[in-house]
Amino acid sequence: MNTTFNKHGLTLAMMAALSAPALADTPTPATETQQQPNVLFIFVDDIGYADMGFQNQSQDIVTPHMDKIAAEGAIFSAGYVTASVCGPSRAGLLTGRYQQRYGYHDNTAPFIKEPGIVQGLDLNAKTIGNYFSDAGYVTGFIGKSHDGDAKEYWPHNRGWDEFYGFNNGAADYFVSGFNTMNAEERTFSSIHRNDELVEDFDGYLTDIFGDEAVNFIERHKDKPFFLYVPFNASHGPMQAKKEDLEKFSYIDDELRRKMIAMTYNMDLNIGKMVDKLEEHDLMENTMIIFMSDNGGRPDDNGSVNTPLNGRKGTYWEGGIRVPTTITWRGTIPAEQVIDTPMISLDILPTTLAMAGIEQQEEWQLEGENLLPLLKGEVTDIDERFLYWKTINASAIRDNDWKLFIPNTLVKRPKPQLYKISEDISESNDIAHKHPEQVARLLAELERWDADNQEPKWGWNRQLFPHANGWRGRN
């Protein structure tokens, strides 16, 4: 439902203080008199549920630009992604379909199910880039790609007109001399512009991605564009700029200080993008979306998932429930907090509707168009189930209930049941009190899973017996 306050701590008092005055397969072509609206989609890495100021959970986080953007639109208190780690989460987001439909259950891994399997997002699957490019949009991808090593899987071969970034789970943030190193010296990934290796340059990678995004907006301001900016902040390696670390020198915990400094720098770069949109009077013609690819992992990058249980890599809420906000000045009313559960699969149908692109049944998209909810035309959407599954765990939720099976590899896995609409912290397992809900949700999870492909790769040699040439990390 659409509310003006949220019992989980997401309040509008903070938002109001930050908000500016009210600003208020046949695609539909753009016209000369009214350009189709743009999309700026910011997808960040390993940011915990509490790690943005607009969540109103952590007192130490400083993200003024995203807080202002969120205050001008809608915050989803129950925003989910389709996986608790990078690769499959991105695959679900980019295709608008559960990645398990393609056998993509986990990050690329050392072992494969059978010889000949190439790890990556099914090449027959269309991406957001394909859908919008086909509709006449200029499509840009700036940042982290993690859905297949071979070049045919890279963004510029998957519907994106322009790709600038790296193809791996992580990259160094300080890049001076980076691309001229020998492969043995390089810690993580090289930077490419489409197929071309970017020559040596100086800079901090988050700043470089921010500048590239600003440049993209400047070059394509007169055309409808879909700009996807998957920052690698605040994923490890934990490397922050000296001046940003000094700003937060009062934070004693070194890991947390680095995380906050890296996130602050990312926020500054988001501010540069918004400034460029403002400069060209594009804010009222641009939808801005912000999500994290999964929850935080506190012991790895100093993130905080309060008040959620669990972390990245689990199907507790802390692994899959993420900061989420959508803004479209003048079209989406400001200062909203929406409690209706949404999932990253909804981004594609929502942006297609925004652009006036008719969704085709054969696309088999599995998300919902959220525009009527965002615009206040409805107070809720039809109740539905959300699903999660990997080789050793699964979960399902509807508006009120969540069933979590933490270990599906044992003979008799023990489901856990939570009234998630009232117990956001998953503190009270009530499976023994509501066996009828357990049975109902298990039956629905099995029905959904019947249309999935088996996992094609993984980390357990017994389950995936064939070795595979593998590189990278989560």
UniProtKB/TrEMBL annotation:
Keywords: Calcium, Hydrolase, Metal-binding, Signal. GO terms for molecular function: arylsulfatase activity; metal ion binding. InterPro entries: Alkaline_phosphatase_core_sf (IPR017850), Sulfatase (IPR050738), Sulfatase_CS (IPR024607), Sulfatase_N (IPR000917). SUPFAM superfamilies: Alkaline phosphatase-like. Pfam families: Sulfatase. The keyword Transmembrane helix does not apply. Residues 37-357 form the Sulfatase N-terminal domain. Belongs to the sulfatase family. This is Putative N-acetylgalactosamine 6-sulfatase (GALNS). It comes from Photobacterium gaetbulicola Gung47.
